[in-house]
Amino acid sequence: MTIRALAPLFVGDFEHYRDVLVLQDDSRPSFPARELVTAEGLAWLLDHYRLFQPGDDRRALLSQWSRYYFVKLSVPTVAANLVLGHELPVGLDTLEIILGEDGLPEAFKLPHEGGPFASTPQGPFERFQELLDGNFETLIEGWNQQVKLSRKVLWNNAANYVEWLVNAMAGLGLPARLLADGKQLIESERRPDGRKNPMFSPVRYVERSSGPSPLRQRRQCCIRYRLPDLALCENCPHIDRPPKGARLPESLIEQA
């Protein structure tokens, strides 16, 4: 079943996230998220996804799959954290994944519904520790080691959606104090211990002489264009100088 405490979040534009986070009594088949970083589990996933998304470039396949993973998990988790002060058990070792009929993540099965923070988190890296350190970092390191997909690409795949979400919630009129840690997460170049923050500045807004301007552009290309039936993303950094063989998205062709 869905998590009742999160119901106030899933209205309007966010309604389709209502059934993304579920509990153990959900009857849909699932598998442990930890399997995504095992050689056997990742090979099975990519072979399965290839049935729905043609292409032999394993890095592009994984990058494209990861984009759906990151957006589906990030949006409800970060929103619940910022707006409701509700921490969710989304660590890689406790999470299970439900795949849809298209081979992409449809939902995530949690061990329990989580709850309010025991004490107010001291900044974004404490607030989002479960998501960043307990899930993203382990996953991204595992994928980088096995498929040699750039860490920068994978972190940008994740951070892109967090930046979009924080700005979307600000546009809905949510108080700045609620979104402060979300904004700091993507505006801090370094973590408190001095390490680089891989979530830092995931996009830029570029003034252009033609087409939409300013254009929201990712810092890193997700390389999905290496798959035979996919064009560049609308916010690809290569929009104005496409790689050889890459197609522009239909929306930008129409506006050119």
Give an overview in words.
With 256 residues, the chain is an alpha+beta fold. It is built from seven helices and eight strands, in the order ββααββββααααββα. It has a four-stranded mixed sheet with strand order 1-5-4-2. A two-stranded antiparallel sheet has the order 3-6. The protein has a two-stranded antiparallel ribbon with strand order 7-8. α2 runs parallel beside α5, α4 packs antiparallel against α5 and α5 runs antiparallel to α6 (176-187).
Q: Gap between N and C termini, in Å?
A: 46 Å
Helix content: 25-40%
What is the mean predicted local confidence, pLDDT? 93
Indicate the proportion of strand residues.
Answer: 5-15%
Count of strand segments: 8
Strand order of the largest sheet: 1-5-4-2
Assembly status: single chain
The total count of helices amounts to: 7
Sheet with the most strands, sense and barrel status: 4 strands, mixed
- The outline comes out as globular
Poorly predicted regions are none
Structural class: alpha+beta
Evaluate the radius of gyration: 18 Å
Give the helices and strands as they follow along the chain: EEHHEEEEHHHHEEH
List the helices and strands and how they pair.
Elements: E1 21-22, E2 31-32, H1 39-50, H2 58-84, E3 86-87, E4 96-99, E5 105-109, E6 115-116, H3 124-127, H4 129-147, H5 151-171, H6 176-187, E7 203-206, E8 215-218, H7 250-255
Parallel strand pairs: 1-5
Antiparallel strand pairs: 2-4, 3-6, 4-5, 7-8
Helix pairs in contact: 2-5, 4-5, 5-6
Q: Key features?
A:
256 residues, 4-stranded mixed β-sheet, Siderophore-iron reductase FhuF, IucA/IucC-like_C
